[in-house]
């Protein structure tokens, strides 16, 4: 099978890691859920490699990563050697879609969305950031996403229903 890339993007708190956790449980035999390198500890829904800023810099300097970015004061990276010759699902910053489109032929981008009020509720319930930080995240304006193959995914339904839809979408893309 060819290398296929499925990028997951969307604002903080929209439910990316929650959807990925459900999908990983169901599809981990068939699909490569790529772990990110992050300079902060993972929370309960994530499966990331945790490293400090210094280790991150050394790896970056040695061209270990296909893509890196900074979000909310932490560094994120996707290792080149994490991409397998199958379907690869990767949660990334929207600003890095083109890194993957330059490197690979088959790249799909799934944009996860919910209305702003629901996003606020989810961030508040998650209790990872302060109220000030949550308001900052909500006020960030999002420009239109530039991606060659863009799919919009509405994550407004409950976790179970949305997870099912998300898993079906990944399965469908695997077969394309
Ligand atoms: N469909 C859903 N319905 C209700 N709550 C949800 C749904 N999906 C996720 N949540 C909840 O919303 C909160 C944020 O979800 P999650 O941490 O997965 O977001 P994220 O997009 O990965 O955020 P970040 O980019 O900051 O890591 C969590 O508390 C999660 O339980």
TrEMBL record:
Keyword Transferase listed? The answer is: yes
> Record's SMART domains?
GuKc
Q: Which domain of life is it from?
A: Bacteria
Query: Which residues are in the Guanylate kinase-like domain?
Result: 3-171
Keyword Mitochondrion listed: no
- What single Pfam family name could you report for this chain, choosing any that match? Guanylate_kin
Q: Which UniProt keywords apply?
A: Transferase
Q: Tell me the InterPro entries matching this sequence.
A: GK/Ca_channel_bsu (IPR008145), Guanylate_kin-like_dom (IPR008144), P-loop_NTPase (IPR027417)
The protein's name in its UniProt record: Guanylate kinase-like domain-containing protein
Q: Which organism is it from?
A: Arcobacter roscoffensis
